[in-house]
C-alpha cells in the first residue's frame, strides 16, 4: 500500500508547489545571483558536512547516520515559503531557491546518498539506488511541478483557490508519512530516540543559524538572509522519507527525517518569532 500511496502523496505535494511557481521564478536567478549562490552553496556544500559531523559526534547507528545525510541532501520544503513570509523574508527568493534546489537535488542527492551508504555501511554492504528508482524520484518531482505550473498558467483562479487546501493536504500527508516511518521502525526509534532527537535538533538549529548568519556576513539584505535561513532550515522531509522507504527499503533511515519534520515546525516558528521581536524587526 505504501508503495502506491507514498509516490501519490509526494506527487500531490509537488503539484501544489508547482502551482506556486512560474517561469519568472527561474529567471529571477539572474536578478539575485549572490543570494541564490549563497543559498545553494550552504545547501549543497555546508549542510552535508554538518550532518556528517553530527552523525560521527553522536555515534549514530549506520542506518540513522545515512538517514541524517539523506535529510541534509534533500531540498527545502514548500513550507519554507510560509515561514519566510511570517518572518518578513524575501518569499520570491524562497520560491526561486526551492525551484532550483528541487532540480539540483536530482544530481546532488544521489551523490551524497551513495557516499554515505559506502562510508557508514561499508563497501561490502553498499547497494547503490537502482537507476530506475532514481529516475522515478525525478519523475515524481518534475512532472507534478510542471503540471502545477501549467495549471497556474492556464487556470490561475483554480490554482489560487487550490493553494490552501493543498497546503493542508501536504501537512496531513507529511503527518501520515511520519507515522508510517515511526511505525515501521518503532524498536529502533525507542532505542535511540534521545540521541537522534538531539542530533536532529542541533542540525536544524545549525541550518537555521548558518542560513541567517552567512548571508549577513556577505552583506546580503536581511530579508534575503531570512529567506535563505528558512529555505535550508526547513527540509523536504516527505522526499527523504519516500526515498528511505521506497528507494532504499530501510525504515530506520527514515527516522531522522521523521523526527526532523516534527521539530522543524516548532523551531522555525520560534525563529520567526525571534526575528519579529521589536528589538530585531526593522522599523
Mind explaining what this structure looks like?
The chain starts with a helix and ends in an 8-residue tail after the last helix. It is mainly α and 283 residues long. It contains 12 helices and no strands. The chain has helices spanning 2-18, 23-27, 33-57, 62-73, 79-86, 91-121, 131-154, 156-184, 186-217, 222-233, 237-247, 255-275.
Helix and strand arrangement:
Layout: H1 2-18, H2 23-27, H3 33-57, H4 62-73, H5 79-86, H6 91-121, H7 131-154, H8 156-184, H9 186-217, H10 222-233, H11 237-247, H12 255-275
Helix pairs in contact: 1-7, 1-8, 1-11, 3-4, 3-6, 3-9, 3-10, 4-6, 5-6, 5-10, 6-7, 6-10, 7-8, 8-11, 8-12, 9-10, 9-12, 11-12
Q: Outline of this structure?
A:
It contains twelve helices and no strands.
What are the defining features of this structure?
mainly alpha, 283 residues, 12 helices
In terms of DSSP E residues, the strand content is: under 5%
Strands, count:
0
Briefly note the structural class of the backbone.
Answer: mainly alpha
Order of helices and strands: HHHHHHHHHHHH
- Report the principal-axis shape: globular
Could you list the spans in which at least 5 consecutive residues all have pLDDT below 50? Answer: 124-130
What's the average pLDDT?
79
Number of helices: 12
What composes the largest sheet?
Answer: none
What is the terminal-to-terminal distance?
52 Å
Helix content: over 70%
Instruction: Compute the CA-based radius of gyration.
Output: 18 Å
